[in-house]
Structure formats: structure tokens, C-alpha cells
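Re: [ENG-882] Designed sequences occasionally contain unexpected residues at chain ends

Forwarding the minimal case from QA. C-alpha cells:
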């Protein structure tokens, strides 16, 4: 079998990221608006790429099938491992839950069936790729990213030609400065680059940390390119005040698409954006599902056999499906909630693992993240502050944009 391409892995990482970010960032960034949203998203991408590399470094002396659970249990104490396991499964589950809920609303109209049946059919079809193999996810991720690129370019070119510069660079006229809203954007931006449950999958897939590092960087750069183009084009077409109803309605994909539809007249642009939103949800669902699947297989000790993979499929996809059928809720609320917990296993724990490994093996052989301990402390600080900002926002102690 030929060695997997770096592009395939980058597409898996990008597909994990892009669904959450594309649908959550415009509403979450409406308060900060264009300039501060671009700054917050770009800085988050850098921090999250470094934290993924730190996790990759921590894994380097373990067997390739080892995941978060194995390395955390060995390098840190069992109490921290339990906290990490709970936060990882909570975030993975809540993201799958958000994607299933959104897909139910979208595909019920397309298929002419109930939302509940559409959600079941969506999970049955899309999770089959995860059940089959990482290679299958690689292949479908490339196809979905290609669909996203084509539909994104078609939709974005139409939006770009209609950008209003005064709307795009609107400035605060008294009241709260836009920069203050950027703090509450960070948890959603962090979740938008939350691919870390797939780091061990990439390492196992390539059997090489250095190629996995390139795939991670490629994936986060692809995601960043999508995000910046997307928010710039949306903020240039939909006024800041028009985001009030979108935010009030929970920032769901259907409400966001409705706001765009009222802002642009071209039916072809609307169709392209609709295809893009579908591809974004499908790709993210499959990408996140793969990471959670491999993590739970390691956690429960399920073998890589047909029976073992079926058991892993059940614990990965059935709980979020059931919850989405019983109580679907707003997309941005789910992403923001996940962002607070995600700081634990996307920033704090990876940095602690790398620090512990360096203390245990000071010779630092093999893959090492540049920057020394400064990188570790900066990533931990970013994670702690982002979690604090989310808690402060929940307590109404940070400015929250409501239109």
C-alpha cells in the first residue's frame, strides 16, 4: 500500500475544523466585527497548531495506536486523565450532537421527511465511512473539501463582488468598542480549530510524527483560509445590526443562510452557499467522528475487528443521535459550550504532557516543538484565559453582542 499523502491528512484535519467554524464564527464574531474577528481567529489558529504539535511530541515514545487516554494516564496522574477524558468526550459528543441537529433541519427539507428521520439517515450514511477505516475518511474528506472549495469559490466570488467596504469596516460610534467583543469570540474560535482528538489518528496513519506535523499545519492553514474569506465576505454583505435576529435564534445554519439570502439576490450564489454549508457539516461530522471513534476504541479497549469497530461505532454515534432527537438546540450555543471544556484537552493538557515528557526524557530525541518551555507556557495561558473568558461571558461579565 502506498504511503498516505500529506494532503489527505490535511483534508481530514481541515474537515474536522471547518464545519464548526464556518457556521459558528460569523454569529460569534458579529460583535467584534471584521478587524478584531480576523485578529482573534488568526491568533487562535497559531495557538491551536502549536498545541496540536505539543500533543504530537508527547505521543512520540508510545505505540502508534496509543491515544490521549494512554499518554495522559502514563505521564500525568489518573485524576487529570479522568478530567481530560470527560472533557474530550463531552466536546466530541456535543459537536456531533450539534452537527446531527443541524443536518436534521437541512436534510428534512431536501428529502421531504421529518427532522428525526433525516437525522437518523444522516448518521447511518456518514458514520459508515468512519466505521470502515481512516483511509475511507481520507478519501471522502478530499472529495468533501473539493466540494467545499468549488461551492465556496462560487459563493464567495458572488459575495465578494457585493462587499460594501463601509459595512465591512464599520466602526463603533460610542458605546462598547468592538475589541471588547473579541474576548467572547475566542471560545468559539478555539473550538473551530479543535482537531486534537485526531492527532493520534494522524500519527498512526502516517507512522511518522514529522509528516503528521505537516498534515496538521496544512489542515489548520486550509481552515484559516476558509474562515477569513468567509467572515470577510459575510460581514461585507450583512450589516452588523442584521445579525441581531441570527444571534437571537441561536446562530443556526438555517438562520444564517436566511440572513444571507435576504442580503443577496443571485439564486446561483444562494445555491452554492447552501451546498457549501451541507458539505461543511458532513465533513466536520465525519472528521470529528473519526477522532472520537479512535479515542473511544483506545479508552474501552475495543479491538480493530469487525465486532470491535461496531462496538466503538455504537458508543461514538448513538448517544449524540439520541440527544439530538430528544432536544436539539442552537448551534452557536453548543459550539460555545464546547469551547470552554475544549480548552482542557486542546491547550492545557497537551502542553502539560509535553512538559512532563521533556522532564522525563531531557535529551529530547525525535520530534520536538520549537520555542522551548516558552511555547508550553504561552499555550497553557491561552487555554486558561479562553476558558475564563467563556465563564465571564456566561456570567454576563463580558460584552456579548445581541444586535
Amino acid at each position: 500500500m502506498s504511503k498516505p499523502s500529506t494532503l489527505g491528512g490535511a483534508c481530514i484535519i481541515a474537515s474536522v475544523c471547518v464545519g464548526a467554524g464556518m457556521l459558528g464564527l460569523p454569529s460569534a464574531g458579529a460583535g467584534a466585527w471584521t478587524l478584531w474577528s480576523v485578529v482573534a481567529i488568526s491568533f487562535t489558529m497559531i495557538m491551536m497548531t502549536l498545541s496540536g504539535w505539543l500533543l504530537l511530541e508527547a505521543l512520540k515514545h508510545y505505540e502508534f495506536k496509543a491515544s490521549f487516554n494512554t499518554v495522559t494516564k502514563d505521564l500525568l496522574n489518573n485524576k487529570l486523565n479522568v478530567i481530560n477524558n470527560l472533557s474530550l468526550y463531552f466536546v466530541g459528543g456535543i459537536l456531533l450532537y450539534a452537527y446531527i441537529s443541524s443536518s436534521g433541519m437541512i436534510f428534512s427539507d431536501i428529502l421531504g421527511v421529518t427532522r428525526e428521520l433525516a437525522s437518523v439517515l444522516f448518521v447511518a450514511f456518514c458514520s459508515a465511512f468512519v466505521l470502515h477505516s481512516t483511509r475511507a475518511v481520507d478519501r471522502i474528506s478530499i472529495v468533501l473539501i473539493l466540494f467545499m472549495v468549488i461551492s465556496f469559490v462560487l459563493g464567495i466570488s458572488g459575495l465578494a463582488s457585493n462587499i460594501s467596504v463601509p459595512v465591512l469596516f464599520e466602526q463603533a460610534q460610542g458605546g462598547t468598542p468592538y475589541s471588547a467583543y473579541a474576548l467572547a469570540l475566542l471560545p468559539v474560535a478555539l473550538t473551530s480549530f479543535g482537531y486534537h482528538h485526531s492527532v493520534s489518528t494522524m500519527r498512526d496513519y502516517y507512522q511518522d510524527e514529522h509528516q503528521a506535523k505537516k498534515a496538521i499545519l496544512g489542515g489548520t492553514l486550509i481552515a484559516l483560509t476558509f474562515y477569513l474569506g468567509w467572515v470577510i465576505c459575510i460581514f461585507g454583505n450583512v450589516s452588523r445590526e442584521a445579525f441581531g435576529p441570527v444571534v437571537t435564534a441561536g446562530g443556526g445554519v438555517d438562520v444564517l443562510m436566511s440572513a444571507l439570502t435576504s442580503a443577496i439576490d443571485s439564486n446561483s450564489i444562494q445555491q452554492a452557499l447552501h451546498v457549501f454549508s451541507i458539505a461543511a457539516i458532513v465533513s466536520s461530522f465525519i472528521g470529528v467522528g473519526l477522532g472520537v471513534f479512535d479515542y473511544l476504541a483506545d479508552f474501552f479497549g475495543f479491538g480493530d475487528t469487525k465486532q470491535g469497530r461496531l462496538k466503538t461505532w455504537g458508543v461514538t454515534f448513538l448517544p449524540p443521535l439520541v440527544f439530538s432527537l430528544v432536544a436539539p438546540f442552537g448551534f452557536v450555543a453548543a459550539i460555545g459550550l464546547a469551547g470552554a471544556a475544549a480548552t482542557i484537552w486542546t491547550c492545557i493538557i497537551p502542553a502539560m504532557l509535553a512538559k512532563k515528557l521533556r522532564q522525563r526524557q531531557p535529551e529530547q530525541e525525535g520530534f520536538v516543538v520549537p520555542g522551548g518551555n516558552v511555547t508550553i507556557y504561552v499555550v497553557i495561558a491561552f487555554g486558561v484565559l479562553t476558558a475564563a473568558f467563556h465563564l465571564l461571558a456566561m456570567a454576563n461579565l463580558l460584552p456579548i453582542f445581541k444586535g
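QA comment: On inspection the terminal residues look reasonable. The mean pLDDT is 84. Proposing we downgrade this to a documentation issue.
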